[in-house]
Amino acid sequence: MPVPLSRLQPSRDEAIEDWPWLDQDVLRSSRSRQVCMTCHFFRHHPGPNGIPLLTCQLHQGLIAQGEHLSHRCSGWSEDLHRQRGWAPEVA
Fold this sequence. Notes:
Largest sheet: 3 strands, antiparallel
Order of helices and strands: EEEEEH
Shape: globular
Distance between the termini: 21 Å
Number of strands: 5
Radius of gyration: 14 Å
Mean pLDDT: 83
Strand content: 15-25%
C-alpha cells in the first residue's frame, strides 16, 4: 500500500545529521534488487562538507555508506515511479 506523500516528510525536530544510524536490528542483508537504494523511502541529502547523507524516511534514520546497496528492512516498498510509470497524470 503506497504511503501518502505527506507522511514522507520528516517528523523529527532535529536536523537530519542528528538522526540515529540504522543498525542490524532494522537493516538486513539482501541479495536481490530489494535494497534501500531502490526503496520508495530512500533519500539522500547534502551533508556537512558536501558528503551526502543517506536516509530512510520510514525509520527516520541514517544509512551507512554502502549499506544502501546491500541491505533492506521489512518496510521495503516499490518506488512509486516504477509502480505507476514515469508520468501517470499524462495517461
